[in-house]
Fold this sequence. Notes:
heterodimer, A: alpha/beta, 27 helices, elongated, Fe-transptr_FeoA-like (chain B), FeoA_core_dom (chain B), iron (chain B), transition metal ion binding (chain B), FeoA (chain B)
Amino acid sequence: MSHCADAPERAGEVTGVQVARIALIGNPNCGKTALFNALTGSRQHVANYPGVTVERKAGLFTTPEGRTVRVLDLPGTYSLRARSPDEVIARNVVLGRVASEALPEFLLCVADATDLRLSLRLALELRALGTPMALVLNMADIARHRGIVIDEQKLAAALGMPVVSSVAVRKAGMKGLLAFLDEKLSRPLPEPVAAADWQAPDRHGLRDLQREADRLIAVCVTLPAQTYSTTARIDKVLLHPVAGLVVLFAILFVMFQAVFTWAQAPMDLITDLFDWLGVLAAQYLPHGPVLSFIRDGVLNGVGSVVVFLPQILILFFFILVLEDFGYMARAAFLMDRIMGGAGLHGRAFIPLLSSFACAIPGIMATRVIDGRRDRLATILVAPLMTCSARIPVYTLIIGAFIPDKDVFWGVQLQGLVMFGLYALGIVAALGVSFIMKRLIWRKAQHDPFLLQLPDYKLPSPRSVGIGLYQRGKAFLHRAGTTIFSMMIVIWALCSLPLPPKDTVRPAIDYSAAAWIGHALAPVFAPIGFNWQINVALIPGMAAREVAVAALGTVYSISASADDPGHLGGVLAAHWSIATALALLAWYVFSPQCASTLATIRRETGGWRWAALVFVYMLVLAYGSAFITYQAACAFGLG
Amino acid sequence: MLRQDSLSFRGNKPSQAMTLGEARPGFSGTILAVDAAGVEGSLPADELERRLLEMGLMEGATVEVRHQGLIKRDPIAVRINGQASFALRRREAAAIFVISNI
């Protein structure tokens, strides 16, 4: 048996043991990912399919009888017609058309037992492919609780495939499925054959399939007399045209409050940890370039980025819990018309919300938007959402320049400025989308808005936990690679060439960084940036938050060794308020994130849209910083 | 299924074919036809029709309008066969011809 496993997975495999390849396929919201998590636990590996940014989730698990199984979690899909890149992958894998992916030997079609209509139609589509498969009735506990009785034997006979029920969120609920797999895999599976002559069903074909699915339900499923469900009761409030919006904004408010307040303690802890490591380094390392590299370059640089891990995790915690609860689709419903005024689709709400953590997962989340125009509009404005990488820059400058005083009723001026910067990003996003719609897509027609509103369910701590772990890992990975290597470059630029021995001026004045900063001065002088800022902007291209670390490096190397000083205090002494405000305005719009631009290129299939984003954001950044600086100078703040 | 439901009356002429795009919250009916031929949009009528079918909006299914948005009463949230809920805009809902269940 041949199998293609990734290197990280191979580590978990026992050589010489045959590994069965199975794939999970099902509608979105059927609990497929929960089932995948229940099967594999932490033995999963998330990567991308080659050439596309569709997430490839694979994992290994061992059955009770000791068989090792490799399971692939295919993207959710309603049919094999494949309308989005995700759905294309799901279809092509089961058709054996993905070069890097061996055809699965066995398919588990995962169905939501509380609503079989769409799942059964998909199962009928899959059955025609001829690959051995079984139907898994997931969330069987909820179905039973609602009084839905499914005659599994009758259904299995009518479908001509095994039917097993499961409860992915409970350990005991997986027993039946695991026993079934053990029984199934006790004999070798036949080598699968790709269905060569598959054709997408037309509207008549779809009707025939749905009619057959409805017939099966009529024969095999006993539905309870219509009851007023919990979901309907909750929706009375959450989907109410007015109350629903009030609740949505209350949730968003709590979310952003939490990002700032809950994160404070762990952030202080991380800062202390890196400070302590710096002190430790100074104790054990001889003074000189090595210590400077470790303390000023590595610890300062990486520490200033890792410190944002708590905020990112808290934001994603809310997003994952709300998603698992079933609320996110409701938010899209409530926001559709409101965002539609600015030319955005209701489904853009979730990607844009994720963009507050980081534009990259946000841009990747736009894949749920079927229409290309709607998707592009969302991608274009996602980088304007205030991502967590801007927070360090904002916090630093606000802390140093905006007085810490009450404006009215306990509202802090600093908080108000922060809120203003967030609001500016949102308003700009709506404005840009509105203008793009009129400039680029003048004649474009409306894309439809069709969205399933899944029944509410209690979020699974396990799914949320695994989701958070993956987000956190990705962020730390970035901090450990991209940002780490950028910090080395900055440190080198700021430290080399070495100053002459008997100078009184700070070492950095002789460095390559100073030269670059001075060379850029004429360009940035009209917006009030000095050469130190210019230097910090260059590494800031890798990631915005690096600019803070770079300013730290530039000013700590330029400060005398005995007086490292607090960065905020140092800046307040060196910059005018006009410069600080101009830098804030710059950071609301600046396209300073190479990873985001690379993601846009990948998702849109070319540099054209990435270039457009870069140019429009640069123009907005320079323009707004220019206006801010000149206005502030006119008010005597220069 | 004939069911007396006071909510179903609100704003709808009973026993008369209409489109789901015109239905008010509380409407409860049966789908008579799905035909996107007259619906303007970026998708060809055939494609929109298939997408609606893939959501289970098919002839014979019962449909109940549960909610509507704040602006221009759009979009709407519907329950199909009492089992699954979907959100769609009134523009696309105009492709679904329904008859009130009263």
